[in-house]
Design a protein that fits this description.
By secondary structure, the chain is mainly alpha-helical. It has 2 domains: 59 residues; 42 residues, no CATH class. It contains 3 helices and no strands. Helix 2 packs across helix 3. The chain is rod-shaped, with a radius of gyration of 25 Å. It starts with a helix and ends with a helix. The mean pLDDT is 80.
Length: 101
């Protein structure tokens, strides 16, 4: 005995909606990751722009600067400083040198 057409149609529509929801969930996950990365990048260039959300994303510096270049910038910044630098101060000094400040 075959299934009534209404049941076939409803099951087909259900599968279609489930697939659509899965796609939306994937896009939402991607958008959340993009937002986290954007907020973290914003904090690098403007620490005063920090919002209430914690920085949860980690982006390795080797993605945008090569290790030998980073080492040379750090060494120069530490040599130019007359006192010890915190990690944040060192990052600001390196960023300033890379941006021509």
């Amino acid at each position: 005995m075959t299934e009534p057409l209404i049941l076939t149609t409803l099951r087909s529509k259900q599968a279609e909606l489930e697939k659509h929801i899965d796609g939306l969930n994937a896009r939402l996950t991607d958008a959340r990751a993009d937002l986290i990365h954007l907020a973290a990048t914003l904090r690098i260039f403007d620490p005063s722009a920090a919002d209430d959300r914690p920085a949860t994303a980690y982006q390795g510096a080797t993605k945008f600067i090569r290790r030998p270049e980073l080492f040379a910038h750090c060494k120069t910044a530490l040599g130019a400083s007359h006192e010890a630098l915190s990690t944040r101060e060192l990052a600001r000094a390196v960023r300033g040198r890379r941006m021509g400040r």
